[in-house]
Amino acid sequence: QVQLVESGGGLVQAGGSLNLSCAASGPSFRFYDIGWFRQAPGRERVLVVGITRDGSRSDYADSSVKGRFTISRDNAKYTVYLQMSSLKPEDTAVYYCAARITGAQYGYWGRGTQVTVSS
Questions:
Q1: Residue 111: how many CB atoms within 10 A of its CB?
Q2: pLDDT tens, position by position, 30-64
Q3: What percent of the chain lies above the pLDDT cut of 70?
Q4: Residue 14 has pLDDT above 90, yes or no
Q5: How high is the pLDDT of residue 1?
Q6: For the sheet containing 4-7, what is the strand order?
Q7: Minimal CA–CA distance to 26: which of 3, 8, 52?
Q8: Cβ neighbours for 14, distance < 8 A, ≥ 6 positions apart
Q9: pLDDT bucket at 26, cuts 50 / 70 / 90
Q10: 3-state secondary structure of 9
């Protein structure tokens, strides 16, 4: 098992940047792929980007964030990061990180962090 805690959300103007962090509870973190999801008001939670357990590959499921969001991880610090730049009002959502064993469903979730982008 792994426990996840997101941080770094906040209010930012359009065009600005935020850096989110997803901190895991311990060394088992390195066995899990990590995904960043977001849920906008009135909409379903969707996968934005995922990164493999060794950090060798990332998959941007949401094409709207390509070139603006960057995922990375530091297994020594049990942390995954999401660097977000050129933010748009439509990026406003609660952002969640989640963990999975490769090939399985995402089964471990954080509580989320709110990102609000004003126009």
A1: 10
A2: 999 999 999 999 999 999 999 999 999 999 999 99
A3: 100
A4: yes
A5: 86
A6: 4-7, 18-24, 79-84, 69-74
A7: 3
A8: 87, 88, 89, 117, 118, 119
A9: confident
A10: coil
**Distances in whole angstroms, Cα of residue 107 to Cα of each of 6, 20, 48, 100:** 16, 20, 16, 6
Structure tokens at 77: 């610090």
51 alpha carbon, distance to own chain's centre: 10
- The residue type found at 112 is G
CA distance 15 to 55: 28
> DSSP characters for 4-59?
EEEE--EEEETT--EEEEEEESSGGGGGSEEEEEEE-TTS-EEEEEEE-TTSS-EE
Per-residue pLDDT tens digits for 84-104? 999 999 999 999 999 999 999
Q: How many CB atoms lie within 10 A of CB 77?
A: 12
Compute CA distances 59 → 7, 33, 81, whole Å.
22, 11, 14
Is 77:89 a contact under the CB 8 Å cutoff? no
